[in-house]
């Protein structure tokens, strides 16, 4: 699903930043990098900063314009360090992560677009994006280094992805749990257990029939909220049977 997401860098000046971006992407499980007219690429500085994410650099696509980069994308998120004059659908970072993951999961091709180190994205480029995303940085010092900005956004995507995976595995677990629920003791089995329990409690003189108080009701309440399975009922009844045997043999001995 993360394969449906690409990171687009527009006119990067410093090749080292391309390396940092590749590293940030690989750390977060993203693999597709698209470079719009980079000033210098391939470049040794990029390889050095990628430190282990060179595969992403090798596979990076180089295109001449942002239009070319976005040609097969369905949904485009443009990032900006400043609030621009143009009013555009603006997503919070968290919302962006969730939306990217939701859409990517259903096969939508996503582009996360990042701008130039010195001037960011132009208004025209920002208007090619469906949503704008701003990292909530210090308003008096809002511009992150390009690699850091990609790191933050892709980390947010990863968190949303992990949450989505966790939810689907919980759903699966619930399915397993509901299969287990079918092994829950039936009402009838529970009733027979309560009867057995009551008899045993009387036999060991814990329950006095003339003065029962609410003991059985309380015990019903206890077992009732424990989702007792058939196997557990069998164990409990086994304990009661053994207890009764001990009580019976003790009373026989007393009679002898
Ligand atoms: N001086 C430029 C900032 C360029 S930073 C400007 O004022 O726009 C390079 C790129 O990093 C930006 O184009 C954007 O894609 C990303 N970036 C940096 N800080 C960001 C922030 N706070 N929120 C979103 N993107 C940010």
UniProtKB/TrEMBL annotation:
Record-annotated membrane-spanning stretches: none
Location of the tRNA/rRNA methyltransferase SpoU type domain: 5-153
SUPFAM superfamilies the record matches: alpha/beta knot
Keyword Metal-binding assigned: no
Catalytic activity entry: uridine(32) in tRNA + S-adenosyl-L-methionine = 2'-O-methyluridine(32) in tRNA + S-adenosyl-L-homocysteine + H(+); cytidine(32) in tRNA + S-adenosyl-L-methionine = 2'-O-methylcytidine(32) in tRNA + S-adenosyl-L-homocysteine + H(+)
GO MF term list: tRNA (cytidine(32)/uridine(32)-2'-O)-methyltransferase activity
Origin: domain of life: Bacteria
EC number: 2.1.1.200
Predominant localisation class: cytoplasm
Compartments where found: Cytoplasm
Family designation: Belongs to the class IV-like SAM-binding methyltransferase superfamily. RNA methyltransferase TrmH family.
Cross-referenced NCBIfam families: PRK15114.1, rRNA_methyl_1
Binding partners and assembly: Homodimer.
Function (record text): Catalyzes the formation of 2'O-methylated cytidine (Cm32) or 2'O-methylated uridine (Um32) at position 32 in tRNA.
Protein name, as recorded: tRNA (cytidine/uridine-2'-O-)-methyltransferase TrmJ
Natural source organism: Candidatus Pseudomonas adelgestsugas
């Amino acid at each position: 699903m993360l394969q449906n997401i690409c990171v687009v860098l527009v006119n990067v000046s410093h090749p080292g930043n391309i390396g940092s971006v590749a590293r940030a992407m690989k750390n977060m499980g993203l693999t597709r990098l698209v470079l719009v007219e980079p000033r210098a690429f391939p470049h040794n500085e990029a390889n050095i900063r990628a430190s282990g994410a060179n595969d992403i650099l090798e596979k990076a696509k180089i295109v001449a314009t942002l239009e070319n980069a976005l040609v097969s994308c369905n949904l485009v998120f443009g990032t900006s360090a400043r609030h621009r004059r143009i009013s555009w659908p603006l997503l919070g970072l968290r919302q962006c992560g969730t939306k990217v993951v939701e859409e990517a999961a259903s096969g939508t091709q996503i582009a996360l677009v990042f701008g130039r180190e010195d001037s960011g994205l132009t208004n025209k480029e920002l208007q090619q994006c469906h949503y704008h995303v701003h990292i909530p940085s210090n308003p008096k010092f809002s511009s992150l280094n390009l690699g850091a900005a990609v790191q933050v956004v892709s980390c947010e995507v990863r968190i949303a992805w992990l949450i989505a995976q966790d939810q689907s595995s919980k759903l699966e677990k619930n399915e397993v749990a509901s299969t287990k629920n079918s092994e829950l003791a039936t009402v009838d089995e529970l009733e027979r257990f309560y009867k057995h329990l009551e008899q045993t409690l009387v036999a060991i003189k814990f329950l006095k029939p003339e003065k029962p108080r609410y003991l059985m009701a309380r015990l019903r309440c206890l077992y009732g909220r424990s989702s007792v399975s058939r196997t557990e009922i069998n164990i409990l009844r086994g304990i009661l049977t053994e207890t009764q045997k001990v009580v019976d043999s003790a009373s026989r001995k007393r009679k002898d």
